[in-house]
Write a structure and sequence with these properties.
mainly alpha, 4 helices
């Protein structure tokens, strides 16, 4: 059963990319924001440590979003 990250309401990454329709975005959101990789999410860990909003351009793995991904729906 999927569980949505407890930080999704304040996560600027989820706000910006959570509703995108491409397979890449759906898989990324499914794995990190709703799935088993949630505890490994760089963003999740930052929220748990201090509650601040990391840059929305940083993916859950801690790397900057590649420019070609930005154009995906």
């Amino acid at each position: 059963m999927e569980q949505l990250c407890s930080h999704y309401e304040k996560c600027c990454f989820f706000s910006k990319y959570g509703s995108r329709s491409s397979r890449m975005w759906k898989n990324l959101i499914s794995l990190y924001c709703r799935g088993g990789l949630m505890p490994l999410c760089w963003r999740y860990q930052r929220y748990a440590e201090g509650g601040f909003c990391p840059d929305e351009e940083v993916m859950p793995n801690g790397e900057k979003i590649p420019e070609p991904f930005e154009s995906l729906p």
